[in-house]
Every structure is written in C-alpha cells, then in structure tokens.
C-alpha cells in the first residue's frame, strides 16, 4: 500500500497520475506527473524513462509503449519538475549548475519511494534516458549501483562541448522569434518554466565547466550508450568518453540519425536496445 504521506495520485482519462513528493534539502514539495505503460504486467521489470531537456510525458509520444512491448516490461514515464504538468519552476529561480545531480540523487529516488517501488523491484529496473535524461540516468547508475538492472543512455552529455552550447543558443533564438514557443506549449503547463530552466543553465558561462566524467567509474551495471552520427547537440566524444571510463559499456553509433534516435531511427534504436536488454539476462 502506498504511504499517503508521500503520494497522492489522481488519474485522468489519459492515464496520467500525479505523485506528491515531500520537501528535501534540495527541493521543496513537488507534484510529479507520471504515467504507467503496461501497468497490468505486475510481475515484469520496470523501465523508467528520463526525458530530454525540453521533454515531458507527452513528448515521448508512443515510443515508450513500443519499446516496453518489445522488451516485455512495464514502463514508468514521468515529467521532471519544471516540465509537462509537474510543479513548474518559479520564474525567478535559476537552476544550479549541478541540477542533474539533484534529479538523480534526490528526485528520482523520492518518486520511486512514493510509488512503493521497493529495492527488489529496483534491482530489476532499467533506466532509459535521453539527452539531459541520459546524463541523469548515468548519475543514478553511479550513485545507486545496486539499485538497478542496467541503463540505456541515448545522446547523453558527460561534459559540455561547444557544439552543444551553440545549438542551445540557436534554439533560444528560435524560441523567441518563431512558433517554437507555441509548439512546446502543447506539452508543458508552463512553457516558460520548461524552456528557460533548461536554456538558462546551459548558457550560463559557469556551466561550461560542468562534467560528470569522474562519476562514471562508479557504474557497475550493464550500460548501453547510443548516439546518432548527425547529432547537432554533441559529438561522439560523449559516448567514447563513457566507454573509456566504463570498460563494460557497449556503444551503438547510428548513421543518418540526429539527436533524437527514438524519433529519427526508432526501429534501429529498438533493435539495439532489445538485443542489449534481453541479452543481459535481467529482463
């Protein structure tokens, strides 16, 4: 039974739920939007999906469903604070340079606690992260090396490259001069919260020194890192660095694919993830 002090869930006709997380040293009380995929498969392992820097539950579209069916797992899809229908970022608040660390160390474990996902379930759990979500997945795997079956990271960032900053600056120009704001507004209750929370921290000069390379050596569980060769937000140096620091990691480099393989090359991505996860013996 869920602890009513930790979680209060409300279901909508879209299958959306909300979890209430208590305040901690790194954040105040939070309302987290989440959705289950294949929820009735109660005995199946869980795959937790961690979205990109402008993502949300809705922006994944049907990819989590497709992948979960292929893997035979349940999926937990949620919007991080500041995104989707989750608690928005106050407009006068700037995210700190280590904002992804707080998401991996505090927010994700608090959500798992609130949903009564116990340690036995977590030891069979896969974390699937894209872009910023990939970085958070790596950090979670490093901080809690025994609390997951493995991780799949898609176009993750482990340090800051000029190409990333340049593309993010270009995205800001598009947001402020085209209909990008309206398009993103379909997926976020407070689009300004989502966009500037992400954009401001990435364009903060202090963020150029951000790196999680040192943390990678703590990852013990199976790890798959995937990146498109045409990614305009990062080079292959990102996943090559992962391979240098995590010798057991497996890399997949996709031709004719940009920053979002689950949109650009979903069949090839699902094939690679399926072969890796199902071959690991943990699904």
From TrEMBL:
AB hydrolase-1 domain residues: 48-272
Signal peptide residue numbers: none
InterPro entries recorded: AB_hydrolase_1, AB_hydrolase_fold, AB_hydrolase_sf
Cellular component GO terms held in the UniProt record: membrane
GO MF: hydrolase activity
Keywords annotated in UniProt: Hydrolase
Stated name of the protein: Alpha/beta fold hydrolase
Naturally occurring in which organism (per UniProt): Paraburkholderia ginsengisoli
